[in-house]
Structure to design on (259 residues):
């Protein structure tokens, strides 16, 4: 088992954003610092085909990934929410345990609310509207002893868990991530309390006011390169291959005029 590198002692008076104290240490962490920065990032992705890799590619390829992720989590921005979001939301982060978005990543959006009541009402309204459109059911389930709203569709295109802990609202595709979020809210293994993150904030302080701050912790890299994730990736590859074989079979049957 690989050992983690030695990390210098962080400054005693180092400042860490409250958001990081609600993120599990093994999650990747993409923090925006404000709702306006989050909107800018979304608009930039939309300009480049909804995919981060197109920002550095020679041309924009539209995989429709951004749209699929929003549909999966039932998390879309209305014109009203774009205008009023800054008054309701203090901070936003994308978190998760892997970056395999094309194949179905385990990820979620974490919101720090200025007005938790209004933010809850907005999310509840979006979820109720999606259920009303049909093809999606809502269940109230218990995770870590707390009630969680779970929206799902038979084909998996919608899979959205929503839970609130204080002023922190978490919407995720994974029940495991929700459980870890709730455990961290109780003070277990947060990113913000980890030695390596606090050292990073010593050399990259909050006063930088970064528009987008991306951090892949030692715990994240250790987790994603371990045997559990290796097995998971092989299972994903098999599933993706099976789906592609079905699509090819359908194309061939259409070409030959056979069922």
């Amino acid at each position: 088992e690989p050992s983690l590198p030695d990390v210098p002692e962080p400054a005693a008076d180092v400042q860490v954003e409250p958001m990081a104290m609600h993120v599990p240490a093994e999650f990747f962490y993409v923090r925006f610092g404000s709702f306006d920065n989050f909107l800018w990032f979304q608009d930039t992705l939309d300009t480049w085909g909804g995919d981060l890799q197109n920002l550095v590619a020679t041309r924009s390829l539209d995989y429709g990934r951004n749209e699929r992720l929003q549909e999966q989590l039932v998390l879309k921005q209305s014109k009203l929410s774009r205008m009023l979001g800054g008054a309701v939301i203090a901070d936003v982060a994308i978190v998760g345990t892997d970056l395999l978005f094309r194949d179905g990543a385990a990820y979620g959006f974490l919101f720090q609310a200025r007005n938790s009541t209004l933010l809850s009402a907005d999310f509840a309204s979006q979820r109720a509207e999606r259920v009303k459109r049909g093809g999606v059911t809502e269940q109230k389930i218990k995770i870590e002893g707390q009630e969680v709203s779970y929206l799902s569709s038979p084909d998996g295109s919608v899979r959205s868990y929503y839970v609130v802990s204080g002023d922190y609202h978490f919407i995720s595709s994974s029940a495991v991530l929700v459980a870890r979020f709730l455990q961290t809210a109780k003070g277990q293994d947060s990113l913000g309390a980890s030695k390596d993150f606090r050292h990073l904030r010593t050399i990259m302080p909050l006063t930088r006011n970064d528009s987008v701050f991306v951090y892949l912790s030692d715990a994240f890299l250790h987790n994603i390169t371990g045997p559990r994730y290796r097995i998971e990736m092989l299972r994903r590859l098999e599933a993706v291959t099976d789906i592609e074989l079905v699509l090819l079979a359908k194309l061939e049957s259409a070409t030959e005029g056979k069922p």
Notes: The first strand starts at residue 28 and ends at 31. Residues 98 and 216 are 10 Å apart (CA to CA).
